[in-house]
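Input set for joint prediction.
Command: fold jointly, output tokens.
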Amino acid sequence: MGQVSKVITHQDDRSDVLLEVNNLKTYFYLQSGDVVKAVDGVDFILRKGRVLGIIGESGSGKSVTSRSILRIVDDPGKVVGGEIIFKGNNLLELSENEMAKIRGAQISLIFQDPTTSFNPYIKIGEHLSEAYRVHKKESKEEIKRHVIDALKLVGISNYEDILYRYPCEFSAGFRQRIFIAMAMIFNPALLIADEPTTNLGITIQAEIIEALIEVKERVGNSVIIITHDFGVVSQFSDDILVMYAGHCVEYSPKKDLLLYPRHPYTVGLIQSVPLLEARKTRRLKSIPGFPPDMVNKPEGCPFAPRCTYKQEKCIHKLPTLIEIGKNRKVACHYPLSDYHTTDDLKLG
Amino acid sequence: MIKKNKPIGLLWKDKNFLIGLTIISITLFITLFASQIVPFDPGKVAPRERLMPPLWSSESTNAFHWLGTDSIGRDLLSRIFLGIKNSMAIALFSIGVAIFIGAVVGLLSGLSYPGFFDSLLMRITDIQMGFPFVLLAIIILSLVRPTVFTIILVLSLSAWPAYARVIRSGVIIEKEMDYVAAAKILGASRFRIAFKYLGKNLVPAILPVAPMDLASIVIAESLLSFMNLGIQPPGISLGNIMADGWNYINTHWWITALPGIVVFIIVLSLNLMADAIQSVSGKKP
Amino acid sequence: MSAPILEVVDVNKHYPIREGFFNKQTGLKQVVNCINFQIEDGETVALVGESGCGKSVLLRTIIGLEQPTDGRVLYKEMDVYKMDRKGVKEFRKKVQLIFQNAFTSLHPRFTIKQSLEEVLILTGIKDRKRREQIIIDTLSKVGLDPIYRFRYPDQLSGGQCQRVIIARALVEQPDLILADEPISSLDVSLQAQVINLLMDLQEEYKMSMLFVAHDLAVVRQIASKIMIMYAGTILESGPSSEIYNNPQHPYTKVLLKSAPSISKGINEVGFHLDIKVGDIPNPDSLPVGCLFNTRCMYSEERCFHERPISLKVAPGHLVSCYLAKQMDDE
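tokens >
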């Protein structure tokens, strides 16, 4: 059939939508008077039990997005627009107290460096118990039961060994798993993992992704994983959202995006990742130019200065997200329609 | 990539900083040109004009002595101008000497960390720091006559340890920086690294501390003079003007109060400047 | 056949652990153990290992910052730590190090020009105009507008800083560049740019390179020989083609399998690595026997008693593992 309708409104079944973000904007107001539009109009939908991978480089706004959802954006940043609808409620309209009840219990966050996330003077068991007590007061035995359950979730069964020891006695990968256990202690519907594997060795990275996969299989939670690593996102996500300079540029189910990317930036990223399985070329393809200047963003498409396919319209008009297929959206005036990853990279 | 607005630019916009800077500039002007701008000879004794109140007071008797006169008829405004000159000059010299000594000790100490030499220097620094200022002043200044030289000695002896510490910490941290390793690899000598590389980073370490420290030194100098351990008469210092007026404080308060207010204003201005510098350089706690 | 430009012979770097009031030595931190390799003229050798494996310390030993506890480092057959003044001067000019974090390896209060000029001043170029010209030329070579030389590091992006330190390494037209993970702190879209740049420069300047990295995918384009490092030792080394197509050591296989992959994502292939959960052994207490024994899925009895020696499994391809089969000598 081969038609690409530009504006298709599917009668989507909305019953299993857990989180819906509409036109989210978070700006940073600097002391010097400049404004950094870190997140400038992000839309996506996350359904129950699905994994959304948000991929982007520095300045893309991916971390700020996760912090905006939890409303923990640091000064001088502020969420200035949009909606974050979680289980039917707009999180931006809740009071701080109501939001505090949600953090850790319904939406949890794990982030980068497991070394500094733990107080080195407090035992592991105490860290975990505290995570529970913050929301619910129960008897010591009850809490211990929850703690043991959480550890089991991440594959740690020798809890007697672990609970009375200190974080420094364990490896980085192990600490990150404990961190996941802490985040999952209330079986939150949504777990946000913000660059959980960056700066950790490749083998530790694998350990952590496996833990996240196992947890999801047992609890059935949704996950948002934020990373700059294509390998991570290609192995652990159902849908992928690509961000650039605070905007969403492409949003698709994983396979579609990896096989047939449509946005020139996505294509550029895929081409520049060194892949062992790709045909070996004399030189790697790279995206020309430098990352965007977030203070003086050009009008028009933020990727235009680096885009090999740019045209006049791209320099002046900012493209909006349009649907180009089932659950596929792209923010581009001239999305590519004939790029096939497997062919281009000669994937073995 | 966020282009930083140079901190200097932000400093100029800070109201407090500008107020402080204005006052200190006036003070420095007075320090330099006091002798030229005094309306009266500050040493001139005029028994018939003694204890005259300042101009704005209801009992003011003439329009010449704007701030009144002291117990032997000397014009207070002129004396205060000269007092500012002497006190500030001494304070500035003292802080200069203190920074110099502190820098040398700090640099040597930091560079030899974690060796024996560093420990030795640090113990000396600790001892100096622990020694109460007044006690030190009394001991030294009763053994030798208080002259400008000895006063500066006492003041800078008390002040240098703080700088030594700040600079030593700075050096220890900077030593490990990649760019220092890069210079070593290129064959830069230790001297070159110490002065060109480390030195450049030390100025910003001192800058937030110095104005506050200067304020302390001004107070310390006034204290010394007040206790008669500082500039001796007929030399003039804000402190000894205050001492002169002490006996008349109930009736002729202005002789003591006015120089005191001047000290207060100077100290306040320095604090405003220090505050602004600290918040701009991000070192404010 | 000319001598190799760099030879590392039996290098160890151990730090004594001292405790107590009298600083008595209670142990030994064996950070780098028994390293042997050579780099030929014009060759690029990759040293691949995860963080903590001792690669940074090894680099510092090679560049002359830290004397090895045992063994020698030879540059053009001269011992780096025993060179005369003339030798030292040449070494400092011709062997350059590119740091991992570009931003911190530039003095924050020097302009780019001043940082680059330091190199030239220290190697004795007295003519100011000539220095200026070299700086302008080199900056252009690395793709930076020469106007950037008047800026400070905090006014440049990460990618631009990286290019500056590459320029700094190039101003004296070196023979050998040691690159310590030069792209790991960069965005993915810039990594390819910098790798391409390094390859072009290498061709143009005819340099040799030792490229340190933590994953095997990034060095595929650039390296002709690869060494796999773990816990201070080299477990496997050989020509690129051998390592990628015929890896022998279980750790090498794990590294290959954990490289980023899009095919696995497309084909929904599962995610298990053949490695036991754990950390790189602590240099304070290295295990007896094979250093990889705590994490190897194939370890046998003998792996816990004695360290395997290096076996030749193919021309130029050496492996330290009991499972590898030694090739027959012809």
